[in-house]
Amino acid sequence: MTAAKIGCTAETLRHWLRQAERDKGLRPRPTIEEHHRIKALERENRELRQANGTRRKASAYFAQAELDRRFRP
User: Fold this and answer.
1) pTM beyond 0.85
2) Model confidence pLDDT, tens digit, residues 9-22
3) Quick check: helix, strand or coil at residue 46?
4) Exposure pattern of 48-68 as b/e (b: 16+ CB <10 Å)?
5) pLDDT along the chain (73 residues), means of 10
6) Cβ atoms 30, 22 nearer than 8 A
């Protein structure tokens, strides 16, 4: 068996072959480069959503403080 000759399991070799086929466009799934780009974009999206949530909370806090300040005699 080829996998044993190169020192890996049959499943690992099968995974490598499938990935090589995807990278060559022979399989319909994303290439490894596309996969890494998608992961990076998902991470950036998550960080931006978190930052927007923080900004929203800070804005509400300061807006309430401004309202409190205006109505104090």
Assistant:
1) no
2) 999 999 999 989 98
3) helix
4) eeeeeeeeeeeeeeeeeeeee
5) 87 92 86 93 98 95 81 62
6) yes
